[in-house]
Fold this sequence. Notes:
By secondary structure, the chain is α+β, with helices and mostly antiparallel strands. It is 27% helix and 20% strand. The protein has 2 domains: 68-436, Alpha/alpha barrel (Glycosyltransferase), CATH 1.50.10.10; 546-673, Galactose-binding domain-like (Jelly Rolls). Strands 20, 21, 22, 23, 24 and 25 form a 6-stranded antiparallel beta sheet that branches. A 5-stranded antiparallel beta sheet has the order 1-15-16-17-18. The two termini are 24 Å apart. 51% of the residues are buried. The model is unreliable at 1-27 (pLDDT under 50).
Amino acid sequence: MRMAGLCLAAALLATTALSPGTGRTAPSPRLDAHAVATARFGADAAWYEDNIPLFESSDQRLDEIYYYRWSVFRAHQRDLGPRGYITTEFLDDVGWQRWPYASLNDATGFHILEGRWLRDRRYAGDYIDFMYEGGGNDRHFAEAIADATWARYLVDGDQASATRHLAAMKHIYALWDDHYDFDKKLYWIEPLLDATEYTISSIDASGGKDGFTGGHAFRPSINSYMYANAKAIGRLSALTGDTAAAADYEARAQSLKTRVQKSLWNDGFAHFVDRHRINNDHVKYWDPIRGRELVGYVPWTFGLPDDTPAYAQAWKHAVDPDELAGPFGLRTVEPSYEYYMRQYRYEGTAPECQWNGPVWPFQTTQVLTGLANLLNDYRQDVVARADYARLLAQYTALHYQDGKPDLEEDYDPATGKPIVGLARSHHYNHSDYVDLVITGLVGLRPRADDVLEVNPLAPTDPADPHFLKYFRLQDVAYHGRLVTIAWDADGARYGRQGLVVSVDGQEVATSPTLARLTVPLARKAPAPIARPIDLAVNLVRSDYPRGAASSGADPKTVHQALDGRVWFFPEMANGWSPGAGIGKAWFEVDFGKPTPVTAAELSFFADDKALAAPARYRLEAWKDGKWVEVAKVATPLANGVDRTTWGPVTAGKLRAVFDLAPGKDMRLVEMKVF
């Protein structure tokens, strides 16, 4: 999904919005969804136009990365056919994923928090179902998926969907007893299985020689995740009227809160830190680790710490350039640590992932979420809105490589350049960004009650380098309504000075300044989710449906055209190509049995060089021992989705027959059949 230029013309603004209760127009221009989606996403605009909240601001880089992150989210949707959609962490396969789905449970919480803002609730809904019904939450890594499920409920209000997995949530929560110390009343984990290899605990447990494995510790992260999951299970239980379960899980959460504050808070560091569970020649059981790590802010990501000045002091380390605040991003470990930025692990000669100093979008997201919670829900004077905006701008800048958006795994805090940069790393999806803009910068704070709360964290001082002269978040799906939040510092952009909040086109609250606003909001029941099933998806190559091709029939690329993954990023090839100069080619799906079919979606990648969409193609069904034409497409889309329908046909196979563009090869990214 290639991004358009940084600027969108003022012509994208329409000129009408309803005044409350009058039906008259008001000078608060609306963004033209079709024009914005077309300018940002080209031929793939329809998906975005139907799904995402629109956003613009006086910071063009912020706008570009907002839309880029939606393109990353879409690219990481994998259609599993009857099992629905999941979200992947890597675009292509990696060795440690859950086969054959390419799922990893460590990034799931981020994915749900991002996907909850889509108007089509299928993507987050299917994914949660997969995690709890399909065994997706295999506890490969520490996780906070129950908490993310609750967070989704706060946005869409779908109680039945949120509570349907309570039994599985409780079962998985109990399974984590294998990582629970009943004496210390805390959870422990190996840093590798916390998705954070080469931390202080694991490096020090090896005597500084390694740290990829080992280093089991009582960590702020897993204990905060389990606290958040317990709170979520308790709240979801309360929705069903199960007061006993609600009280039980609330008590578990409070016990963890007490123990984290008592045992993992370190007065000397003024920070939450690990305690070793290992006892060897290098480290001693229950000793605190010997340095501050960024993971110490994860308790605030889930609102765990008490609102006290002592705990708030931890945040001074996040803004101190000699501690965790690197020039280009938040360091995962302070530079005073003996093994700071020492590179231990390589893939060939290329550096691999480590957490001993590099900037990680993963943990940067957690810190920014925690900081937004701190600024919204706590009384403190250590950090301010300006710090949130500055850190978000710093994070925004990390998304660019050679002037183009391409988020990778981790970065050097001294240069802002990627460290890992492997083939798998392009457009990496183990973090949030959209959610940080919506709930933090713009300030839509999801709630369980019938109240709309808006508290923007954009700076209020016009002299601040990150001050926004204007911003507009338009048509956010929230509690069954469409919410729009607009800010115009001087009235020059929208013809109306101040902060204006509208619901379903009706103005409900205003403020002359960037201030917290709360208004009653009567919720509407969410619309039912439509779930059409892709009949052509193939997860295991030896199974049906099977692909076949006229040429270029490499099993890997043929499989890629049926694997449920669609992206148009040029950095990573995905799909089948017949070869240049052939003129005609075909691609076939064998269902293995007679199957009713009525529609197909074909996606083609084009790079304006060697690859182009075909000049035309036709669809043929294998029926009664011969190929029968069912549809023709005269002008196929490039870097978008061609959907074609026809009258119902029962066939054992379906194929597309292509006339290639003169002098060009083509790439069929995906063929779906319905």
